[in-house]
Amino acid sequence: MVLHQDLPPLMALRAFEAVARHLSFIKAADELCVSQSAISHQVQKLEQHLGRQLFIRRTRAIDLTEEGGRYYQQIRPALEQIAQATRQLSQPRQNQVLRIGLLASFATLWLAPRLTGFTLRHPQIRVELEPTIQLADVAGAQVDLAIRYGKGGWPHVNAVRLMGERLFPVCSPAFKADGIKRGPLLMSQAPQPFEWIDWSRHYHLDIQHYPRAMLHDYNIVVEAAIAGQGIAMGRQRLIERRLKEGVLVNAFDQPAFESEIGYWLVKPNSALSPAAECFCEWLLEQCSAADP
Length: 292
Hints:
The protein is an alpha/beta fold.
């Protein structure tokens, strides 16, 4: 515990340190931009506070007493720590750029609406989302982190499962009313038709007779389903708002199915930057809160 009565006057301590370092009242005065008499006054004030003589004053030189030298060696590290802490705190906080590779659908439908919370918590970190169908190269530092949708097992990276996904086919209410037997099944290029395969196996349904339409991204799949162009595999976490709006409905009235497919945080095997560590911590919080 720091007792205030044990602390000497700070100005007197600064004057003593400067004089002890230079062994000169004149140089100490020049460094602190005060007069020599002011420096001498502060040193005398400290000596009175301590009840000890700190300097041996000669005609043309000064030297530390034994007690003064010991006191100087003891307080110098503490003063250096204070100076270092002050420098670090007074330095402007530089923006850090964090690049995250992910599917455009996850960025648009799940992450972007939540990202303001991260920015408010860490205003010094600028997040750059880089949508890509392919797995972003975190091992080669193309991006700092990646968020992927799949079953994991990617080589040369550290993949941590964030949360699962509940799957069920969806379509527009009008499309369902007209009859869904004609299809087509709307599919995105990533993660290819694994969702449909897992879902049909789980419910022992044959979907081979349905025509298929391959679209570039899941965002397009969702919009095509809303427009009545076919049946999409609904990823509940991404289409929750559309379901509440009533523009998408459960096409086959089957309960949602949670498969091995899920969302993964992909990290390099090397050490993460402080910005990446902050984002990982925040993302895990968000995923935990989103769990049903």
